[in-house]
Design a protein that fits this description.
The chain is of the alpha/beta class. It contains one helix and five strands; from the N terminus they run αβββββ. Strand 2 and strand 3 form a beta hairpin.
Length: 92
């Protein structure tokens, strides 16, 4: 099983690819089923990100992150912002 540092490296790759998340492999299972959700304060685009694998249901959450320009975001004020996010095993 990968550690948090490996997941943080993958988060950097996902941020660089903006929307091409399927081209990045999960550090735990190796499948290309990663999903990312930026939940932000709309004015600053800063708050937190959730990154998880739809196959093995592992991932990370990172706070104080700025969503990359062009990345889809959800408002932290929207109660549905985490709708559809599984209760994944978080690497702390």
């Amino acid at each position: 099983m990968a550690d948090r540092a490996a997941w943080l490296r993958v988060l950097g790759q996902v941020a660089d690819r903006q929307g091409e998340v399927g081209l990045v492999s999960c550090p735990d299972c190796g499948q290309g089923r990663l999903e990312v959700r930026y939940i932000v304060e709309p004015e600053t685009r800063v708050v937190y990100v959730l990154l998880w694998c739809g196959a093995c249901v592992h991932g990370i959450s990172v706070s104080r992150v700025r969503a990359p320009e062009g990345a889809p975001t959800r408002s932290i004020d929207d109660p549905a912002s985490v709708e559809g996010v599984p209760d994944f095993a978080r690497h702390e």
